[in-house]
Hints:
Chain A is α/β, with parallel strands linked by helices. Chain A has twelve helices and 19 strands. Chain A has two domains: 2-166 and 357-392, Alpha-Beta Complex (Quinone Oxidoreductase, Chain A, domain 1); 178-344, NAD(P)-binding Rossmann-like Domain (Rossmann fold), CATH 3.40.50.720. In chain A, the strands form five sheets. In chain A, strands 3, 4, 5, 6, 7, 18 and 19 form a seven-stranded mixed sheet that branches. A six-stranded parallel sheet of chain A has the order 10-9-8-13-14-15, sandwiched between helices. In chain A, strands 1-2 form a two-stranded antiparallel sheet. By secondary structure, chain B is of the alpha/beta class. Chain B is built from 13 helices and seven strands. Chain B is globular. In chain B, α2 crosses α4 (118-126). Chain B has helices at residues 2-24, 64-86, 97-100, 118-126, 129-132, 141-144, 148-158, 170-181, 206-214, 226-230, 258-277, 280-289, 303-315; strands spanning 88-91, 109-112, 135-140, 160-163, 185-187, 218-224, 242-246. Chain B has one domain (53-315): Glycerol-3-phosphate (1)-acyltransferase (3-Layer(aba) Sandwich). In chain B, strands 1-7-6-2-5-3-4 form a seven-stranded mixed sheet, sandwiched between helices. Chain C is an alpha/beta fold. Chain C has two domains: 6-39 and 268-309 and 344-527, Alpha-Beta Complex (2-enoyl-CoA Hydratase, Chain A, domain 1), CATH 3.90.226; 52-188 and 197-261, 3-Layer(aba) Sandwich (Rossmann fold), CATH 3.40.50.11440. Chain C is built from 21 helices and 20 strands. In chain C, the strands form five sheets. Chain C has a seven-stranded mixed sheet with strand order 1-4-19-14-16-17-18, with helices on both faces. The mean pLDDT of chain C is 93. The chains are: A alpha/beta, B alpha/beta, C alpha/beta. Chains B and C meet through α12 of B and α3 and α4 of C.
Amino acid sequence: MKALQVSRSVPKLGMARLASAVSPLAAAKLGPLAYTTVDEPELPGPGWHRVHTRLAGICGSDLSLVEGHASLYFDDVVSFPFVPGHEVVGELDDGTRVILEPVLGHEARGFAPPFEGAAPGDGDDYSHLSTGALEPGIQTGFCCSTGGGWAPTFVAHESQLHRIGDMPDERAVLVEPFAGGIHAALLAAPVVAARQDTTRPAVVAVLGAGTMGLAAIAGLRRYVPDVEIIVGARYPHQQMLAKAYGADVVVGPDGLQRAVRRATGCHLIGDHLSSGAHVTIDAVGTSATVADSLRITRPRGRVVLLGMPAEVTVDLTGLWHRETELKGAYTYGTEHLPDGRTARTFDLAIETATAVEAERLLSATYPLSDHVDAIAHAATAGRRGAVKIAFDMRTGDT
Amino acid sequence: MVDRNLQRAQRVAGAAEDAVRRAAMPLRNFGFPYRTPTVPRGVEVPPEVSGLGAHYDTEWARRPLASSVRTMIIEGPIRLTARVLTSPEIVGTDRLADLTSLDDPPPVIFAPNHHSHLDTGLMIRSVPLAWRHKLVVAAAADYFFDKKWKAALSALSLNAIPIDREVTGRTSSDLVKSLIDDGYSLVIYPEGGRSPDGWGQDFKGGAAYLSARTGAPVVPVFIDGTGAIFGKGMKRPKPGRTKVVFGAALRADEGESTRRFNARIQAAVTTLGDEAITDFWTARQRAATGTNPPLTGPEHTGWRRDWALAERRKLGTAGLRRRQQRRWPDLG
Amino acid sequence: MPRPGFVLDVDRSTPPTLFWHGEGFRLEKLPADRSRVIYAPEPHDAIDDVDGAIRTALLHPIDMDPLPSLLFPGMKLTIAFDDVSLPLPKMRRPDLRQRIIEQVLTMAADAGVDDVHLIAALALHRRMHEFELRHALGDRVYDAFEPRGLLFQHDAEDPDNLAFLGTTDQGEEIEINKRAAESDLLIYVNINLVAMDGGWKSTAVGLASYRSLRHHHNPTTMEASHSFMDQHASELHKSTWRMGKVMRDHGPKVFQIETTLNTDTFPQPFEFLAKREWEWNAKDRALYLASAKALAKAPPRTARKIFHGIEAPHQMTSIQCGEVEAVHKVTTQNVYDQQLVEVEGQTDILMLGIPYICPYNVNSIMNPILVMCTGLGYFFNLYRGKPLVREGGVVILTHPTTNEFHPVHHPSYIDFFEEVLADTTDPHVMSQKWEQQYAEDDWYRHLYRTTNAYHGVHPFYMWYWGSHGMKHVGKVIIVGGDAATVRKLGFTPASTMNDALEIASDTVGRHPTITHMKTPPLMIADVK
């Protein structure tokens, strides 16, 4: 079958990196991604299913890989050559439509889960990621044994699958990114609950209103009570969506610090707020946004890194002095909600995606053969008024 | 050796004399009126009015050509000298804004204190532009106009006019009146001369009298610092900083005697002198109680006077003014 | 002999009319036969002997004893003066405040008064910079009082230095500067640039706190002030006069000094700005062309610098002092004498060129909120009788209206623009929903008290200032304004005057009457 595949070619990664500086289109052409004939992956064992891709989204982490920006950190938890794509809605051989929870957890690799009913992402030891029945890979889409969503067919373990009933594909493809955003939103909850002054709502700032940022906003509004959500979003359509998803105040990126200051009524000392947001969710993940996040978060507040940051340069003196907590938010697992419920992030994401009609975020779909255009579109989504770009394999033209 | 040089010099001198004599030979044929007439016997020649001193006629120096030369001198060397030697800070000209803002500012009489020859250059450079180029300076007839060249130089470069030091005579006051009627302003030092010891002297009535006679208002001026730069008796100037403080114009009140008006001018300059070393409010308060430090210095004689002068100079522009702590509202 | 104001009926041979356009100008040809242009009266002759006039006034006050007899040793004397918002543009040195205060101080010194404080009556305006204080007071007064700590800028947020004087019969609280309140004599030095200034507004506003100001600086009062230039039809003034009554009974003795200026507004080379276009000679035309072209090419900062460097040649036409209300009556008459222009009837479209300056952006930036305030708050209110534009008519402003704010002077304006205007442009709604938050924001308070920032609530006041205008007119169009910014203000952007007239036709029909009030120079339209 023909699929998109990433190979480990150092010159190509280098080329992509250089080319990405010029245009994402060039990066997609010259980079490590190739539209080529690959073998269909074999079922690794019992409990595995063959999944026929219907829609597969293009995620920010996919883009950074294609552009050669991914961190060396991934070198040992990824196995080449792999088919990317982890935001997938597909159907099983029997025609049941499923969403993929891409993390290749304990069960998929043949280990006992860390606790009863654990989600693939749970646990405090990542040794299973590079051992067990499969080649190394943190999740489907980075592992050569399972294939990925940017191919007509791949394999998935029973523990990774969520059956979705009659949810439209366009909404389902956004459930995975929503789960990421909601996970980040829920990381704000303990700080919000523990705040001292409960007479006023807690302030949560969100930097960036791409898919993840918007999902985080929706998650905050839905699951974290008593918060004032302030969003810095660059593009008009993002600002509009942020408002629609429940943000209280939406400003341009330059206005975020001012807006947070207004909401908290604090002072400004140098370029740091004297107090600030209780929690800041950085859904972009560049040096500049991490630094901004640290500046607008109050002492002993929490910064949640939702966008994959790769290598950043940040002055951490403020973090040291203000005792800011820097918290990563990779993916999803089992969540403890502020109202006392325990739920799997994916279930919450399905709930939320339905409630906010997440399909609004899917701006365009491309066939796999148009991957260069698709990736260029995804890389410039904000500027071109788009949010999420996906590959559509439903027409069977592959 | 020496003798031979002398002989050589003698020979050169002799040759030169011969040459001059030969050149001058034709002139011998020209007598009167080319030469001064001889006086017949038994005739008494009436004493000629001296063209010097108070009688020196400075009219030529106010003609267009001389004026434009003077403008160049004032804006060039005088300005430069004043700047280099005295680095003046000029304050208080805004008090004269009502007059300077008129299309044709009326003539005034500037009455500064006097410590140094530099004062005149400094004054010319400091008076508002409206008056600067129509300004005459009253200079001591017996000092600046005792020799032809001195008189010409003073008249040309400073537009000086000769004034008697002690009593303003008829000639001087007529001259001043006609000049003021022509729109010239006047700088006159009421002290009548430079300070002998660094302290001021009591004002003579000249400025008050001329003001009363001509109707031009008197602008009191205090010049601080020139005494230390080039005071009387100093061989060469010591560059330093100066301050020129202009006061508001004064007019003789109805029925006010010259003596009283003169006292008022002196008091005004004294207050400005106080203002130059303290500030406006302190000077005003002390003026109200008559406790401004007098221009003429303390009553003592001898070293205590010099001692006090040093203190006074320290407070002036040469010294640093003590500033109180800035006090905006205390914000805790 | 200065000519009075003049209303020109535009015909086909009328040359294009000069419009102010921020830091620049534009020439617009107005439709013939239905347009009028109002030209300000020419400047009255100023008093030649200003210092003499001041002295005479201080010695012969109205309804009060001569100043020297009010001064005695051991007294507490406070001299308050108008801040940097007056006059506009700043006047040439020496400033009137300097001349008056120097004479007052001289009299105080003669009387042996030791305890003298000077207070800049800022209300909620920004504190003045040192160079501004020096300009207003002169170096002599500044150097004598500032180092001693006797020169204050009123701090409306200093609880320890405010005194509560009582409430009016309508429940308005009066809280003013404590030192002023506890003085044996409070001398207030006014420059009454327009008819709105002075009277009890000087002390009851200039020295007041937020607690006191909110009783008249609110949409309800301001909407009912028709106009600010007519004291008897202005609720704002009625409120301050009620406060004045309380001050007279419970406050300090006030010696009011009010001065009026002529309208000689522009120095060379900008004299053509005050001339009627058909009287421009070759030099005026050359100067107009040179300056308009140069300003259009110059970077905005440079243009701003040039304009804010302008020192107006206006001079004093009268000074009167003594009892507040008696003095103010004379002053108002003097202002009217200079500024009133009789205008026959209202108009469908009122055109106003917004200049580079208003009272709140001296040495600063004319931000969008101030554009609105200058147009609908100030210029719209330059009337007596009824507004120049009919109810439901259109106001067309010309100004670049860029989204630009002075970060030091107007910090709360930025947030107001981003946050409040995004929510509502209705003065009543914002006063209910947002005003208090801004007034009590600790950061704004900090900036107001320690730096040169306007108070947090000030942008609201600017917006309320235009509430009467906004309610009265049907549409506001800004020609040449940045589209997004103008829309955020709730107005309509237009790129040219013709577009603006086209847009206006939806509201006022195809053949509206048009009036352009060519100000500055300042004037008041006396609409019959």
